[in-house]
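To illustrate the input format used throughout this study, we show a single complete record. The first block contains the structure-token representation of the backbone; no residue identities are included at this stage. The design step must infer an amino acid for every position from geometry alone.
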């Protein structure tokens, strides 16, 4: 688990579960290493981390493919919003501008 610019990067379901237990609101971007749209989302995620109270996480489940099945991820990036450890919303529509993703993370 690493944290840079307000965004935490994880690679296992155990790391995700630990973050969900520690934080009330968690925005997770499920990504892959070769996803160019995912890479372009880095500054957007940083903006969301600075402008909301959500913990922002990049999750590359390469070594934990059960997590992909558990969350029914069909494409990347997929954004998952957790509140109090429960998945409450999701979106999988490619690049999302900062304001839209911040509103999604805030539950607006």
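Output of the design step:
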């Amino acid at each position: 688990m690493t944290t840079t610019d307000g965004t935490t990067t994880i690679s296992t379901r155990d790391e995700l579960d630990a973050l969900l237990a520690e934080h009330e609101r968690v925005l997770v971007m499920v990504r892959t290493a070769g996803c160019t749209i995912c890479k372009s989302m880095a500054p957007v995620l940083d903006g969301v981390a600075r402008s909301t109270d959500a913990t922002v996480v990049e999750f590359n489940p390469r070594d934990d493919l059960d997590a992909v099945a558990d969350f029914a991820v069909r494409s990347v990036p997929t954004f998952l919003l957790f509140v109090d450890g429960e998945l409450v919303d999701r979106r999988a529509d490619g690049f999302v501008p900062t304001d839209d993703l911040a509103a999604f993370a805030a539950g607006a």
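Structural context for interpreting the output: The two ends are 29 Å apart (CA to CA). The longest strand covers residues 25-30.
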